[in-house]
Each structure stands twice: as structure tokens, then as C-alpha cells.
Write a structure and sequence with these properties.
Layout: H1 7-15, H2 23-34, E1 40-41, E2 52-54, E3 59-64, H3 83-106, E4 110-115, H4 127-139, E5 144-148, E6 151-154
Parallel strand pairs: 3-4, 4-5
Antiparallel strand pairs: 1-2, 2-3, 5-6
């Protein structure tokens, strides 16, 4: 199936996709800041430039879009055009996310991932629940990897 947009229109659309300050990220930032948590944004010294870095808690939080990171949820749908390109792109993003998480965990950081589908879409959680889970993660002393969507796994898994 051919793309319905011209190359210039497609380029304009793609150029407007944000890599930071997205609505889900801003929601998490505002909620945690209002709760008294202070953080740095996208620290270039850390692998993967985490969205939120909490040095006091030695923890980082990533806010991932379900499409770009290939989350297995109702919000992720692989495009039908240029399927090979998108398969490779999403697989590359997933692989990079895994390498980044492993590097952070091995260097002693605790890692949380908030998925876009936890904030919008048919399976979203109540807004205060997402912030509550983030707060609980930050205040915990366990070195765990937590995905805020109800899935929790430890680093050893």
C-alpha cells in the first residue's frame, strides 16, 4: 500500500514528533514535582539519557511511547506501509532499550518505565495510580526494574 502523503508532507509530520516534553512525560514530571520529588532531565552522562533522573534516590524513570518502543499493548500497531523498515526500527529501539536498562542496572541505578498506555487509551490506569506507583518506586530501597503497567520484574529475571 502506497503512502497517502507526499514525501514533503510525511517529512513535516515526522519532524513534529517530540522526543522530549511529551504529554505523558510532562504529566509524570508535574505529578512527581508536586509530590516534592526533584529530578534532572535527560542526563547525558547516563546510558540512554533517561527522561527523569533522581540522584538522591539513585533511580531513573523512562516515559516510553508504546508505538516507538514496541510495547505489547492495544495502543501499538505496526504500520502497514514500509513494514520491513518499521519492523527493523521497532526491533532496534527494543534492543537499545534493553541494553540501556542493563547498563543502568549494572552501574547501580534503579530503573522504572512508565508506558504511554498507562496514561491514555482503553487500558489506562487512574492518573493518581501512575504517580503513586512512581512514588512507591522512588521511595523503595530495592534494586528493581518496574514497568508501570502492572508488570514487575527484578533485575535477576
Amino acid at each position: 500500500m502506497a503512502d497517502v502523503l507526499t514525501p514533503d508532507q510525511r517529512q513535516l509530520n515526522m519532524s513534529r514528533i517530540r522526543g522530549r516534553d511529551t504529554k505523558p512525560e510532562m504529566f509524570v514530571r508535574r505529578g512527581l514535582h508536586a509530590g516534592g520529588f526533584r529530578y534532572r532531565l535527560q542526563d547525558r552522562q547516563l546510558p540512554g539519557r533517561p527522561d527523569l533522573v533522581f540522584p538522591r534516590y539513585h533511580a531513573v524513570i523512562f516515559v516510553h511511547g508504546c508505538f516507538w518502543h514496541g510495547h505489547d499493548c492495544p495502543m501499538f500497531k505496526l504500520p502497514t506501509t514500509r513494514r520491513d523498515f518499521w519492523d527493523a526500527k521497532i526491533a532496534s529501539n527494543r534492543s537499545r532499550d534493553e541494553r540501556t536498562t542493563t547498563a543502568l542496572l549494572e552501574s547501580g541505578w534503579r530503573v522504572a518505565t512508565v508506558w504511554e498506555c498507562s496514561l491514555k487509551g482503553p487500558a489506562r490506569l487512574p492518573e493518581n495510580e501512575v504517580i503513586r506507583q512512581c512514588r512507591a518506586f522512588l521511595l523503595s530501597q530495592e534494586a528493581i526494574l518496574i514497568n508501570i503497567r502492572g508488570e514487575v520484574r527484578t533485575h535477576e529475571e
